[in-house]
Amino acid sequence: xxxxxRPPKPPRPEPVPxxxxxxxxxxxxxxxxxxWDRIAQHxxxxxxxxxxxxxEGPGEVVVTFCWRDRDAEQVLLFANRLTDETxxxxxxxxxxGDTDLWHASxxxxxxxxxxxxxxxxxxxxxxxxxxxxxxxxxxxxxxxLPDPRNPDSCENRAGTRQSVVSLPDAPEQRWLxxxxxxxxxxxxxxxxPDGREVWLYDPADVPAxxxxxxxxxxxxxxxxxxxxxxxxxxxxxxxxxxxxxRAVLPSSGDRETRWAELGNDGGSTYVADExxxxxxxxxxxxxxxxxxxxxxxxxxxxxxxxxxxxxxRGVASQSASLWLDDLAELVRAGVDTRIHLAWGLQEWxxxxxxxxxxxxxxxxxxxxxxxxVNGGHDYAWWRGTVADGLRALLG
Length: 395
Hints:
The protein contains 11 helices and 17 strands.
């Protein structure tokens, strides 16, 4: 059974890059009200550091996370894959004297993007991040508070809103948001071939009987609510980045169902033998099928693309759970499937396996575009980079 498997939790291979903020260190306690009124209108703070020499890669900045709270006893920053769940003390905020300003600063590459939230310990109460084992810790971390001075946010799988830090050189997410001048496609909820919720997307202004390429997007309940893949498709089509497409977005169900299906071959069998044939009975679609997935969904997308090239012609995988399966046997078979392989450079469990998989795909003669992103295991960048995968496969 795979339903009780959990990702490995080794500690960070390198210490959290914690530093001091020159701006905060120069701030006298009596200046803190002015800081909140004038300086901290938009958080987190970003301070320049000495530029890297030419040819040495992206520059770096100091990013400072702040929380305003006179009564807190401790404040924990939970930033996706910056915070190490085995070393939470490394991202506890520091109180600035006897004021209501809590802060923590980190030196990061200027193209970093991540979701983050804060957890607060109140006097006389246990810290919400202590006890209850791994499952309890994850539940507590997933319920952190967003940054009230940062308007950019996304939602995690649990549906909790989290703030997003995007440093100055982070990739632009230009197809993410709804545009008033772009007609919206139709999204209709159905009961799928096995009774689960499935959403079907049809682009605007295309007759229903015109066959179009098909995009299969796993975890459809996320992409039709918390992050809108139909909006991204509308914008990509309007800009001529991809041709008009239809999409089918199946729900992954509850946590146990998701693990049972996407954690093994059941998910790929469902996509190839049930979902795609069912969609063809309802929509006019071409032979060209692209599967999109993240985490366990990314692994399933790779499995079905490598095992069933008779059905799937392209895969856009993001942060695939390669700790479960290195896919070596499927890769050795060699297939005529195009793969856009994206992962986060901050994912210390998945970085090396993704690099190894990219090399193995190249050696097997499989068309792969490796696309590492300076981020974690995170919808903060998945929601934007999914457009890059679709462009690479359909553009």
